[in-house]
Write a structure and sequence with these properties.
The protein is of the alpha/beta class. The protein contains six helices and seven strands, in the order βαβαβαβαβαβαβ. It comes from Exiguobacterium oxidotolerans.
């Protein structure tokens, strides 16, 4: 059985991505900051017949991510797929937002993704197999003036994804991003289930580095 870690396994995209990979027989390791979130997500996954466990993890802390990766390897042997879905939203004007707030969001959006990739990549390179998938946002292409931290973070993680893709492809390790250009909302084109399907399509095809999903 292959194993997938979902960092940022919340009730929207996170749980649907988990379901989609679980449907294909993956053991799912859900990672989130609180036990309350994890308990709800794991319960929902198990109700859908998905093998899942929850592990507390603060994506802004490399030590937390390292512990998560090591625990997963001890329990299941290896990490076949890493999905980095962590992000935070903070509305502000670019003239008012503090450097501390921008730093906090950058740590989650970009540095957490970098840490996670660096921690799983060596084993994937050695096996010449594996995939790293990252949730992007349309704000990284067209900035949203009320979300300066998110816009800067998603621009950074988009470039990070492209660099990881170009660096790891020669070792048969796939890296890709789903760029969500709009508000994720159930019953729309940006339903979390559609986001999850886009992730699995990228993983299955292993060709395109980026898939842009829009509300239209």
């Amino acid at each position: 059985m292959k194993t997938a870690i979902i960092i940022g396994a919340g009730p929207g995209n996170g749980v649907e991505i988990s379901k989609r990979f679980g449907k294909e027989g993956f053991q799912i390791v859900c990672a989130a900051r609180t036990q309350e979130t994890l308990a709800a997500v794991v319960t929902e996954l198990k109700e859908h017949g998905v093998e899942a466990v929850g592990v507390e993890c603060d994506a802004s802390r490399r030590t937390d991510i390292a512990s998560l990766v090591e625990w997963t390897k001890e329990q299941y042997g290896q990490v076949d797929v890493l999905v980095y879905n962590a992000s935070i939203l903070h509305q502000s004007s670019v003239l008012d937002v503090s450097a501390e707030q921008i730093t906090k969001e950058f740590e989650i959006d970009v540095l957490g993704a970098l840490d996670a990739a660096q921690l799983v990549a060596p084993d994937m390179v050695e096996r010449k197999d594996g995939a790293i998938l990252i949730t992007g946002g349309g704000a990284g292409i067209h900035a949203i003036k009320s979300l300066p931290g998110l816009s800067i973070g998603k621009a950074g993680v988009r470039q990070l994804t492209h660099m990881l893709h170009d660096t790891l492809k020669e070792n048969n390790v796939y890296v890709g991003t789903v760029t969500i250009a709009g508000e994720v909302k159930r019953g729309t084109a940006l339903d979390p289930a559609n986001v999850a399907e886009a992730f699995y399509t990228l993983y299955s095809n292993r060709t395109d580095v980026e898939k842009v999903l829009s509300a239209e």
